[in-house]
Amino acid sequence: MLDYTHVIDGLRGRKIVLGVSGGIAAYKAAELARALKRLGADVHAVLTEAGASFVTPLTFEALSGNRAWTALQEEGAKGGMPHIILGRGIDAILVAPASANFIARLATGFANDLLSTLCLARECPLFVAPAMNRQMWENPATQRNIATLAADGIAILGPAAGEQACGETGLGRMLEPDALCDALLAFFAPKLLAGRKVVLTAGPTFEAIDPVRGITNASSGKMGYALAAACARAGAEVVLVSGSVALPLPAGVQRVFATSALQMREEVFAAIPGADVFIAVAAVADYRPVETALHKIKKSGEPVHLEFVPNPDILAEVAALPQPPFCVGFAAESRDLDAYAEGKRRAKRLPMLVGNLLADGLGGDENTVVIYDDEGRHPLPRAPKAFVARQIVERIANLLPAN
Ligand code: PMT
Fold first, then answer.
1. Does 327 qualify as catalytic in the annotation?
2. What distance in angstroms lies between residue 155's CA and the mean position of ligand 1's atoms?
3. CA atoms within 13 A on the CB side of 402
4. How many domains does the chain have?
5. Pairing with 222, which of 5, 6, 119, 192 sits 20 to 30 Å away (CA)?
């Protein structure tokens, strides 16, 4: 299922022309129109004749709330020229799906319908999401055309590999609507962390007792992944050290997995040189078994006694480096959030800590947090984790010492 809540309004006020050319992936363009609108965009669909034979303009009108266009000369358009009306104030054109035929026309500057005319007459960024059969994609003519578009400064999004409508498998599938939305969100996001390197931890750790058992916690990784995505959109180089979770990799993020606290510590210290910011979102197990049994512990009917030793505190160790990055901690508490969170911030000498109540933050899609820093406490309203993440990034960017 698509997660349209990943950013609430990242495209608010943006006028986006959604170009739809002919191809079976046109059905996904309807989902895309909806997703863009939910992100706040003012969506105007323009279909080629072939595109309109797959999905009707009416579908896009219903989803976007705007008239959908097909022909160069349309009734009701000013002077019969919709490209004049539509062309004004466009923030971006996204052609999805872009067929091999449409890409060829774009590469040669052939403007024989409304969409190609708009693309040729544009004064805004153009994004193209190819969708076609694997052999058409691999054909040298298509590859030449794609290289021409890239050289012309047009952003090529995808294609993805996988099963195709024709039954073949390979490169040529249109990127999913949420990946296309991500590309636009990243393009329009203020680059508050440009030139910065951010290292994050996310998710739970798993401390093995034997080959099949261990102790862990209920962290889903959603808060940490949302923050990693927000940092990447803000222009940072991002390394995400992730516990074992099954979340998709956010665009522009380099991910390394770490199962136990000791592995997480090792990966963090491998990534930390050159980092400007370290954000510890992971719910790290405070203890691990003294020993991990080599073989599965058999049931004997008798009580089992396990001995645990404390894990290293990764955040405290990073914050204690001679020249630490700007360190941001998290604290999930079941009560007395202010006292415990601020206590942890001071104990670990952190410039910033984000507190959340367990009932709110753990596992869900939304969170209610309070940011603690040297200027006091700053409560944020309950919101989807991506939205909370964006506000945390804004606060970090404000407090971060200049380069
Ligand atoms: O993953 P989700 O389901 O989205 O849930 C998100 C979350 C609730 C797990 C997250 O928002 C959160 O609050 N994470 C911190 C959990 C916590 O209470 O950590 P702590 O109090 O044990 O540790 C405080 C800080 O030190 C944290 O930044 C933690 O990452 C860090 N730490 C703790 C122990 C340790 N050995 N190493 C650490 O780096």
1. no
2. 38
3. 0
4. 2
5. 192
